[in-house]
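Protein of interest.
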Amino acid sequence: MAATDAQRAAVAGRCCVVCGTNRRIDPAHLVSRSLGGCGEAACCVPLCRLHHRAYDRGELDLLAYLEPAWRAQLAHAVGHVGLVGALIRVSGKRQAADGRLP
């Protein structure tokens, strides 16, 4: 789902939390709306297109890049899906169809 104006404003002028580039920055939802995320600015972090796509595919572990500077966003994600759910989402360890971790 598309980012809100508040989310776009929250990442405007920021650099990608992974690589530090400031080109083509997207507001990346830590927890997508389809999984219970929201349109608040605290629900996203700045990622370049390359890292945003990798994160959405579950190929990127963001945890090391988010702590401690993006702790508020992590806490917001925990509020949506709980501690284990946020850890699974942020670490890129998506659940298998049967609900178990790969």
